[in-house]
Amino acid sequence: MSTKKQRGLSLDQQAELALPWAIRVAATLRLADFIAGGVTHLEDLASRAQVHPGALGMLLRYLSASGIFTERAPEHFELTHAARMLLDDHPQHLREQLDQEGVGGNMDRVWIGLLDSIRTGQAAYRAIYGCTFWEALSTNASLSAWFHPLMIRLSTEDADALVKSYDWTRVGHIVDVGGGMGSVLAALLHAYPALSGTLIELPETAARAQATFADRGLLERCSIVGKSFFEPLPPGKDIYLLSCVLFNWDDAPAIEILRRCAQAIGPQGRVLILEPLSGQEPIPRPVTAEELLTLVLLGGQIRSLETYANLAHCADLEICSAHRLTSGNTLIECAASAYGI
C-alpha cells in the first residue's frame, strides 16, 4: 500500500488485522486459481479447497467488500485485478509469499514478537521457534529453498552497480565474505577476466554455490570455502567484500565479522562494505518495513555512516571513502587503521 493511500485511511483502518490475514488465507487456499479455472460457486470452491462452506462464505464476502474478489451473483465469485495477483503463476509470486503453510507463514508469525524486539533490541525468532533464523535456515529445506533464490534476485541490482562503481582493474583477488550463492562474486569475475576470488559461506550454501560459478565457467578462477565468517579468513588478499551482511547482525557480531576481515588484510588490502544506510534522506516505507523485519528476524539494523565508522574503529579499521551506488546501497571502503587515509 502506498503512503498516499495510507494517509487516506483512518488509524483504526490502518490497524485492522482482518484484511491482511484474510488475504493470506485466500492465498493459502489458492482461491484465485480455482476461480480462474472456472470454479466460482461457493459450495464448489469449498469442496475444492476442502474447507467449511459457511466459513468460506464469510471470508469471500469480506474480501469482496474489500475489493479483492467480487460477488457477481449470490454465492458466485469472480476475480478482480487485485485478486489476479494471487494467481500461482503471477510474476510477482505473491501467493507463495503469503502462503501460511509455507515459508510465508513462518515469516509472518515472527511479527508476533515485535513488541519484545522493540523492548530488547533483539531478534524475536528464537523466542517463537526455539532457534535462530540462521539455525533454521541450515536445517529447514523449504526455508532454504525460498531464501537463497530470493537473495540472488535481491543481489542482482547490487552486483550490476558494483561492477561499474569500483576500480577492479587494480584488484587481483577478492574474498566475498558471506557471499551467499555467489551471484555478486560471479558477476565481478565475469566482468573482469584478470580477477580471481574466494567465496566464504557456510558449508551447505557453499555446496549450492558451486553451480553459480560452474554455469559461467568460472570455477578455475574461484575457490569456494565452506566455513563461518566468524572463523579466520584467508589472509593477504586484496579485497574483502561484505555485501549486505552486516545489517543482518547486532553490533557485537558485526564488529567480530569486521575484525576477522581486518586480521586478514595486509597494508594495501581493503574491506568493502555494501549496505543500505540510514540518515541520508527520508527512507521509503518498504525500506523501513524491511528494517523492522530484519530486527524481529535477526536482531539486525540499518545503520548510519557514522555508526559504521564506529564499528570499523572497534575492529581496527578506518573508513577511506563512501559513495552511493545506483542500486541505492552505499559502498564503504575501509583500510587497516594504521594505513587509513
UniProtKB/TrEMBL annotation:
<keyword id="KW-0489">Methyltransferase</keyword>
<protein>
    <submittedName>
        <fullName>Uncharacterized protein</fullName>
    </submittedName>
</protein>
<feature type="domain" description="O-methyltransferase C-terminal">
    <location>
        <begin position="111"/>
        <end position="314"/>
    </location>
</feature>
<dbReference type="InterPro" id="IPR036390">
    <property type="entry name" value="WH_DNA-bd_sf"/>
</dbReference>
<dbReference type="InterPro" id="IPR012967">
    <property type="entry name" value="COMT_dimerisation"/>
</dbReference>
<dbReference type="GO" id="GO:0032259">
    <property type="term" value="P:methylation"/>
</dbReference>
<dbReference type="InterPro" id="IPR036388">
    <property type="entry name" value="WH-like_DNA-bd_sf"/>
</dbReference>
<dbReference type="Pfam" id="PF08100">
    <property type="entry name" value="Dimerisation"/>
</dbReference>
<feature type="domain" description="O-methyltransferase dimerisation">
    <location>
        <begin position="18"/>
        <end position="88"/>
    </location>
</feature>
<keyword id="KW-0949">S-adenosyl-L-methionine</keyword>
<dbReference type="GO" id="GO:0008171">
    <property type="term" value="F:O-methyltransferase activity"/>
</dbReference>
<dbReference type="InterPro" id="IPR029063">
    <property type="entry name" value="SAM-dependent_MTases_sf"/>
</dbReference>
<dbReference type="GO" id="GO:0046983">
    <property type="term" value="F:protein dimerization activity"/>
</dbReference>
<dbReference type="InterPro" id="IPR016461">
    <property type="entry name" value="COMT-like"/>
</dbReference>
<keyword id="KW-0808">Transferase</keyword>
<dbReference type="InterPro" id="IPR001077">
    <property type="entry name" value="COMT_C"/>
</dbReference>
<dbReference type="Pfam" id="PF00891">
    <property type="entry name" value="Methyltransf_2"/>
</dbReference>
